[in-house]
Amino acid sequence: xxxxxxxxxxxxxxxxxxxxxxxxxxxxxxxxxxxxxxxxxxxxxxxxxxxxxxxxxxxxxxxxxxxxxxxxxxxxxxxxxxxxxxxxxxxxxxxxxxxxxxxxxxxxxxxxxxxxxxx
Length: 119
Hints:
The chain is built from five helices and four strands, in the order H-H-E-E-E-H-E-H-H.
C-alpha cells in the first residue's frame, strides 16, 4: 500500500494484507505485545496509576496514557477503547476518556519539571 492509498484510507483486500475490519487505515503502526508489556510494567512499578484513553485519529491509532500519582506518564498504542477497558480491569486501575475528562494537572506539572531539568 502506498502513502497516498493510506491517506485516502484505501486498503488492499486479501489475506496477505492483514486485518480487513472495515476501518480506515492510519499512518501509524498498530499496537504490539511490547506496548502492552510496557504498560503492565509501568503500572507494576508505580503508585496510583490512572489511564486516559485517546481516540483513534487519521494519523495515530487509539492510545492510552498512564499517569502515576507523582505525574509521571507514558503513552502507548492499544487496539481500541475495549482493550483499554479490559486492560484497566486486568491491572485494577481506573480508566477515563481523555476527550471527556482531560488530563490531570499533575501530569502537566511533571512534564514541566522534566523540561526544566533538561535546561
